[in-house]
Design a protein that fits this description.
With 532 residues, this protein is an alpha/beta fold. It has 18 helices and 16 strands. α5 runs parallel beside α6, α11 runs parallel beside α12 and α14 crosses α17.
């Protein structure tokens, strides 16, 4: 692209930072501008369709497997692309934000894949967004080694022992207000994808891998089709062979679970499989049906992956993936290893039990949030897989799921407990505080939490208030207590801002769809035009 005329002008409104010019080059910005010009309106249209679909479902329209795509589901002749280099064996994947320390630890962890997360694990400050791109560039160039002020060294292991990098861009609902094209903010997903693809796609290919992605919060096949078209265009613009990109889709919305096969079909030349979430899936369930009493959920800790409607979702995901030759990746083990040996054994036992369920159900791998969990996850999948890289041959033809199985939430229902109310308020408040200070992955009470945890925590409070199983006075009293406790532990923290964010997003009459757009525009956007 350096020899082409640059015609798609993106304005940088964020303040200049250290080495930002290495990422925000004229050619890279022009590439992002081309993507925004071609796909920005389609993205806006799909967001409008999300709102229309939400209104239809709230009005009582049934949710089921689409009749118009029955032929796609019935056709036995199509399969997704074969696994790409570095994505054949995915029995352990580690996730975390693309900061320098996390990158070195994740790449060295022994996991097969590192998901570098610009979405739920990153607070999207301008420095975090561009700094994350620099971290990925440095990691691929093998120049990321560093020593802390305390003298601790972080050094990458030999290349053959490093995890494969997979990038998760932000979701379609978010904008990047520090970059502007045609007078409007650039969709954040196109920024995260575009800058990484421009700088690192060919570098990854030269290293024997490729540009790989996780796609968050898709709601239907049309959103998958948009991503596939973006991949095709991006490869054409940079002269990269079509089909080099691979993408794993997170099935973390209740509408997407009814279109898993269609999503794989839309992305089939670029597909690397599907992933089963937990908190975001429950979050989506409440956003979609939280006004109905038959979707009233108990304490989130009680809604495990063994709940019947969650079992239906995960078993259908494995069956769908393996039917089409795609990897099925399990959910997150968010536990942080404990210092006390006895406590740590209990942590590892909990993780082991969860991973055993996934491996026995047919998943090909699973997520962990901490390097200390890689070994136990690997041992579990080793026991099931042996020397095989996956278990795609387990087609799970025994699984039969109907829409009612996916929506029978009442069987997992029950009233919240006082402990559940307090935990949700405390975790949401603590996470909001960290997020507002630029930290997107936070250890809270022995768990590595990200935005998905805050989302399920605050929408549960909203749902319980709506159905009057708790009262507003109780919530405000607990909120007062937890704000005082947080201020005592973090005297430097913006506790008042975190509390206001909680009140706006959990106590409002109408539920905000996400906390991130409001918090981003109010607190993280610092527009200072840096370059034209």
């Amino acid at each position: 692209m350096s020899t082409e005329v640059l015609t798609h002008h993106v304005r940088v409104l964020g303040a200049p930072g250290h080495r930002h010019d290495e990422i925000l080059t004229p050619a890279a910005l022009d590439f992002v501008g081309r993507l925004a010009a071609e796909f920005g309106e389609r993205r806006d249209g799909l967001l409008k369709e999300r709102r229309r679909q939400a209104i239809r479902l709230a009005a009582g329209s049934p949710l089921g497997f689409p009749m118009v795509t029955a032929a796609v589901r019935a056709d036995p002749g199509w399969r997704v692309a074969p696994p790409a280099p570095g994505l054949t064996d995915r029995r352990v994947e580690i996730t975390g934000p693309p900061d320098r320390r996390t990158a070195v630890n994740a790449l060295n962890s022994g996991a097969g894949v590192w998901m570098a997360d610009f979405e739920d694990a990153t607070s999207p400050t301008w420095d975090n967004v561009i700094g994350g791109q620099l971290v990925l560039l440095d990691a691929i160039e093998r120049r990321i080694d560093f020593t802390t002020e305390e003298g601790k060294e972080y050094r990458l292991r030999p290349d053959d022992g490093l995890a494969t990098v997979v990038v998760r861009p932000r979701g379609w609902h978010l904008d990047e207000d520090h970059l502007e094209y045609a007078g409007r903010p650039v969709p954040a997903a196109l920024v995260d994808f575009g800058l990484y693809f421009f700088h690192c796609a060919q570098r990854q290919i030269d290293a024997g891998y490729g540009p790989y992605f996780y796609l968050p919060k898709l709601e239907n096949r049309y959103e998958a089709r948009l991503w596939n078209d973006i991949f095709v265009t991006a490869q054409e613009l940079l002269g990269i062979p079509r089909g080099t990109v691979r993408a794993t889709v997170l099935i973390e919305t209740v509408t997407a679970v009814f279109e898993m096969e269609e999503i794989l079909h839309e992305l089939r030349e670029h597909s690397a499989g599907l992933n089963a979430g937990r908190w975001d899936y429950l979050f989506s369930l409440i956003k979609t049906f939280g006004h109905r009493t038959d979707f009233l959920l108990p304490d989130r800790a009680k809604v495990t992956m063994t709940a019947p409607f969650m079992r239906a979702y995960t078993e259908l995901l494995v069956r769908t993936c393996h039917k089409r030759g795609a990897h099925a990746i399990g959910g997150m083990a968010a536990q942080v290893p404990a210092r006390d040996p006895a406590a740590n054994e209990a942590v590892l036992a909990t993780v082991r039990l969860d991973k055993e369920r996934e491996a026995e159900d047919g998943f090909d791998g699973s997520w962990v949030a901490h390097p200390g969990l890689v070994r136990v996850c690997r041992e579990v999948f080793d026991d099931v897989l042996g020397d095989r890289p996956h278990q795609l041959e387990r087609t799970r033809d025994d699984v039969e799921v109907v829409p009612a199985d996916l929506l029978s939430v009442r069987r997992a229902g029950g009233p919240p407990t006082p402990e559940g109310v307090r935990t949700n308020i405390a975790v949401a408040l603590g996470y909001f505080d960290a997020w507002l200070r630029g930290q997107g992955a936070v250890a809270i009470d022995g768990l590595m939490e990200d935005a998905a945890t805050a989302e399920i925590a605050r929408v549960q409070i909203w749902q319980w208030l709506r159905h009057r199983v708790i009262d507003r006075e109780t919530v405000l009293r607990v909120l007062d207590d937890e704000a005082v406790a947080l201020a005592a532990v973090r005297p430097w923290a913006p506790v008042d801002e975190a509390r206001e964010l909680f009140e706006r997003t959990a106590l409002a009459a109408e539920l905000p769809l996400f906390f991130t757009p409001d918090a981003y525009s109010r607190h993280l956007v610092q527009r200072t035009e840096a370059q034209g």
